[in-house]
Write a structure and sequence with these properties.
The chain is built from 17 helices and 25 strands.
């Protein structure tokens, strides 16, 4: 059994940190507006790491640097630059050919690759993603951008021909929506931010981008790549308090699309600031409380393995994490014994240490909030199953398996977003199904079992409650070619490599009556390559 003193001793002395993983120190005054990297001369916001350093008696939080705490005026300048670059659809970027926009994005990828080591190190220090996962996040993001390029080529190929219906000649293609305000989450600050930012850009929209509060410095190495890869005003960055910089931008009515990944509470506040809600498109990835249902005939060893990954990858700080496990009472004891034993084997350590599976929690005060959830569950009849469960020191928190959880406990409904795993036993399958039906969220569910008839009887109703049913496997986002979305309060819009291109654009038609004069006119436009939209160019 671990003790808090043991965890505290894991925090290193500065001299013991490998040279290649030393803490960065970045006093970032740079921000990008209208194709220009400017220097902020106003107040700054300090950025600290969840990692503590033992240079004295008590571990001290590592200071990583600072970023601009921008004003309403500066945010308005960023928005105006994006609006001017879009110019009501008449700007250089939205009227550019698809092939040309692709070349700009490809140039950005090449520049981005040169920043890999710096971004990975910042992912470890800012949000404590372990080394392997930080590298995976960067590489997956590169793959996502490249896959997006290929998906756009395929989409454009299918739109490169004309159709004739009822004596009307038409060409249907996709056109941009306008100015996009892009805000990503702290848990995948690079990857999930770019799953909205890149498709928004490549479809011809202009962007104002605000990095998440945690995981903000890692974008600093990319500012020059953004500046040099896109025309001025196409992408602009803002930093600081959401109330100061986001609210006035939304209130201006100049934002056409809100791309936000975070909590439904924050998204509601942001979208309500817009004066013309029916004009505002929203692409939202929000809360989730993904359940797991383990049937009596399930392979317990497989269920344990998948539930361990599903509930505790990146400390459970994922919207796709398994956050409530239902196990049939006939196998509950066996599952609990094996599952808690595997949890106890997990290695808790610092992100750069080999084999680290549980790392410091990114959010300040998170260990205390998780402890409160556990105490509430204990007060209502639950217990911590694994010996080390809930032991913490500062930001290091060892996962807690809590059982039996019931509807009187906060853990039953509230999204814990951390390494606490609530487990409930059920006797009738309707108990687990009712949980899914009554939930405010509808992202995913995992079901474990072997009987085809029973599994099918669960699949058919569950696909009308959630947007992904995982059979004998954990909940997850990938592969990125699969649709990623949710029902109820979990999402608006669908994000996948191809779906994201559609969600940031709209089908638009150029049409003409089937007459000789119109045929000659269209032929002239095509032959002389006079239009970026009206074209039969085939992208290879």
């Amino acid at each position: 059994m671990l003790k808090s003193e043991t965890l505290a001793a894991l925090f290193p002395q500065d001299a013991n940190i490998p040279t290649e993983f030393k803490a960065p120190r970045i006093e970032q005054r740079e921000y990008l507006i209208d194709g220009e990297i400017r220097q902020w001369q106003g107040p700054m916001q300090e950025i600290s790491s969840p990692v503590r350093i033992r240079n004295g008696n008590a571990p001290e939080q590592v200071k990583l640097g600072s970023v601009p705490s921008m004003s309403e005026q500066a945010a308005t300048e960023a928005l105006n630059a994006a609006a001017a670059a879009y110019d009501n659809g008449r700007g250089k970027w939205p009227t550019m050919s698809v092939g040309e926009r692709i070349r700009h994005v490809q140039n950005f990828v090449e520049r981005m690759l040169g920043c890999r080591d710096r971004v990975v190190n910042l992912l470890m220090w800012e949000i404590c993603k372990n080394l392997a996962d930080a590298q995976k996040e960067f590489d997956r993001t590169i793959d996502y951008i490249r896959d997006t390029v290929e998906a756009l080529k395929e989409l454009d190929r299918t739109s490169s021909r004309f159709t004739i219906q009822q004596k009307i000649i038409g060409q249907i293609r996709r056109a941009p929506l306008g100015v996009v305000l892009c805000m990503g989450p702290f848990n995948y600050p690079l990857n999930e931010t770019f799953t909205t930012l890149i498709p928004a850009l490549i479809m011809g929209n202009t962007v104002v981008f605000k990095p998440p509060k945690l995981g903000v410095l890692l974008f600093q190495p990319l500012l020059e790549a953004f500046r040099d890869s896109f025309p001025k005003g196409v992408i602009n960055t803002v930093y600081g308090s959401g109330q100061t910089v986001i609210t006035p931008m939304m209130a201006s009515g100049k934002v056409d699309v809100l791309a936000f990944i975070g909590t439904s509470r924050v998204s509601d506040v942001i979208r309500k600031s817009h004066p013309k809600p029916h004009r505002l498109r929203c692409v939202l990835g929000l809360d989730a409380k993904n359940p797991c249902i383990i049937l009596p005939d399930a392979d317990i060893d497989l269920a344990v393995k998948e539930c361990l990954l599903g509930s505790l990858s990146f400390n459970g700080q994922r919207c796709t994490a398994l956050k409530m496990i239902f196990v049939h009472s006939s196998i509950a004891d066996a599952f609990l014994a094996k599952f808690s034993a595997e949890v106890e084997k997990l290695q808790i350590n610092l992100p750069w240490e080999k084999g680290a599976q549980i790392t410091p929690l990114a959010e300040p005060g998170k260990a205390e909030r998780l402890t409160d959830l556990i105490k509430d569950a204990q007060a209502n009849g639950a217990r911590i199953v694994n010996p080390s469960g809930g032991v913490f020191s500062d930001s290091l928190f060892f996962p807690a398996v809590v059982y039996p959880v019931n509807d009187k406990m906060k853990l039953y409904r509230e999204e814990q977003f951390g390494p606490v795993i609530p487990i409930a036993a059920y006797n009738r399958i309707e108990e687990a199904i009712s949980y899914v039906v009554e939930s405010d969220y509808g992202q995913q569910v995992s079901i474990f079992g072997k009987d085809a008839k029973q599994m099918a009887s669960l699949i058919d109703p569950l696909v009308n409650q959630v947007c992904r049913v995982n059979i004998n496997s954990q909940c997850q986002r990938g592969p990125d070619t699969f649709p990623f979305t949710g029902r109820k309060d979990s999402a608006e819009g669908t994000l996948s490599v191809s779906d994201a291109l559609r969600v940031f654009s709209i089908r638009t038609l150029v049409a003409a009556k089937d007459s000789d004069d119109n045929k000659q006119l269209i032929t002239k436009i095509l032959k002389d390559d006079l239009s970026s939209f009206l074209t039969t160019d085939f992208l290879f």
